[in-house]
Design brief:
This protein is an alpha/beta fold. It is built from twelve helices and twelve strands.
């Protein structure tokens, strides 16, 4: 059998103890099923090198479609991972898979949902560090979670830019609207634009509160494709996406300001949040903490050796 290559950051190869548990478990657990080789990730010409190098290739934070490679990365919420033929997050193949709620076990879904909700909501944790203080916010008709279009992935996947999105919401919703800037957006221009909008729209409030306080206060969530959309599902809050996402199946996806405004006034009920969370994380992703991690990963890897 040809080798199984893991393309990883160089510092992990120098200090294996720094390697994330997902890779530690896979490289050790698959050693008796394949010849595991660790190589430093170099993205330049990677697709061509894969073609010229027999074997299967696992690409950390990859976005390459090749019959002998899979892309790996954390799927928004740890310990869940993508191991995907197309990419990770917005670019993963999950977005093209049909979600059939009727085929998901309801009882198992509720157990899974409540366990994840208890950890995330009960622990007030999120993908990015959040303020520990609890803040009581005004009840809002919508909460908008911003991202930076300077981030390559956001710029490639948006249907509406953030300012068009914000203005469309403010014009359509007359009750309070909350806007939370991205915690890693330190661009003073973002703050300046938000100040101008607050002067124009008196019902706009900009907040840096903990995501969980914002989600608790709002009726709906609007974002391009932020991971907060997944967290909104844990609160059973209707989600409107203004960009490409692989968790779009029970959200409203809009591509124009008018479609966004229509979605804001749409009656929403009966969305199968628990079944979806179980389907997305439990069935489509891999759990790095699960006893069956190696077996489930191998089920995806093994067929690629036949290509």
């Amino acid at each position: 059998m040809a080798p199984l290559y893991f393309h990883l950051p160089g510092n992990w190869l120098e200090k294996p103890s720094e390697m994330l548990p997902f890779y530690q478990k896979l490289t050790a657990g698959l050693a008796d099923r394949a010849e595991v080789r660790l190589v430093e990730m170099s993205r330049d010409g990677l697709a061509e090198r894969i073609t010229g190098t027999p074997g299967v290739h696992i690409l950390n934070h990859g976005r390459i479609e090749h019959p002998r490679s899979l892309n790996a990365g954390i799927a928004y919420v740890y310990p869940f991972w993508h191991l995907d033929p197309l990419g990770i997050r917005a670019f993963s193949s999950i977005g093209a898979v049909r979600f059939r709620a009727g085929e998901v076990d309801g009882e198992a879904a509720q157990v899974f949902f409540q366990r994840l909700k208890g950890r995330m909501v009960g622990g007030r944790i999120s993908r990015y560090e959040q303020p520990p203080e609890r803040e009581v916010l005004p009840k809002a008709g919508a909460a908008i979670f911003l991202q930076s279009e300077g981030h390559r992935v956001v710029g490639e996947t948006l249907y509406l830019d953030r300012w068009t999105m914000v203005r469309a919401v403010l014009e359509a919703v007359q009750t309070p609207v909350l806007v939370k800037p991205h915690p890693r957006d330190f661009d003073p221009e973002t703050g300046a634009k938000l100040e101008k909008l607050m002067a124009e729209f008196r019902h706009l409030s900009v907040t840096t509160a903990n995501i969980h306080d914002v989600l608790q206060a709002t009726e709906r969530v609007v974002t391009i494709n932020s991971a907060v959309g997944i967290e909104a599902y844990l609160y059973r809050k209707p989600l409107i996406l203004c960009g490409k996402a692989d968790f779009h199946h029970i959200a409203d996806v809009v591509q124009t300001p008018q479609a966004l405004q229509d979605a804001l006034h749409k009656e929403v009920s009966g969305r199968p949040y628990a079944k979806y969370i179980h389907w997305y994380f439990g069935q489509q992703c891999l759990n790095a903490g699960a006893a069956d991690l190696v077996d489930r990963a191998w089920a995806r890897i093994a067929p690629l050796f036949l290509q």
